[in-house]
Write a structure and sequence with these properties.
This protein has one domain: Up-down Bundle (Methane Monooxygenase Hydroxylase, Chain G, domain 1). The protein is 75% helix and 0% strand. Helix 1 runs antiparallel to helix 2 and helix 1 runs parallel beside helix 4. The protein starts with a helix and ends in a 15-residue tail after the last helix.
């Protein structure tokens, strides 16, 4: 297994994450406008992207595992790029580090955008609940309590537990 195969897999992962980032940015506009049909379609598109990312990441793990086996190294259950960097030559390390850094940057941007979308969604939900609370009348107590009927506000508390038994 060659490093170029792993680098192309990492590049594909970066492209998928950037595409998912574009969807997240579009989702922000949909949340602001309140377009529920658009949000529903957006969620379906995101699910497709996530499935592709999982599939590509599995391919990356297999490629890294094959490379490590070819190098005579032990392979963990889920090999990482950091494991690969330990086994790679100096020339390949630089290319791998650059690809890893680009992917991490795309992931961090996506995380930031998703956090923003989560906050916007939460604020929208709070606004809806506030609006409902203002429109919905508060139910008043229709029943009278026992003390209000008898006129005796201070009643003796009776317990059902017999401590002398």
């Amino acid at each position: 297994m060659s490093i170029t195969t792993i680098l192309s897999t990492i590049d594909n992962l970066e492209k998928l994450h950037k595409s998912l980032l574009r969807l997240a940015i579009d989702k922000t506009a949909l949340i602001k406008s309140g377009d529920m049909a658009g949000l529903d379609q957006m969620l379906k598109d995101e699910q497709a992207h996530l499935a592709a990312i999982v599939q590509m990441d599995n391919a990356r793990q297999r490629a890294v595992a094959l490379y490590l086996v070819d190098q005579g190294r032990s392979v963990l259950a889920e090999p990482t790029v950091s494991d690969l960097l330990e086994a790679a030559s100096d020339a390949d390390k630089q290319r791998l580090e650059e690809a890893r850094d680009r992917l991490l940057h795309a992931i961090h941007e996506l995380k930031w955008q998703n956090d923003l979308n989560q906050k916007l969604t939460y604020q929208s939900l709070q606004f809806v609940n506030l609006s409902l609370d203002m429109v919905r009348p508060r139910p008043e107590s229709v029943n009278y309590s026992k003390t209000e009927i008898s006129g005796n506000k201070a009643s003796k508390a009776q317990t059902t537990f017999d401590t002398n038994a």
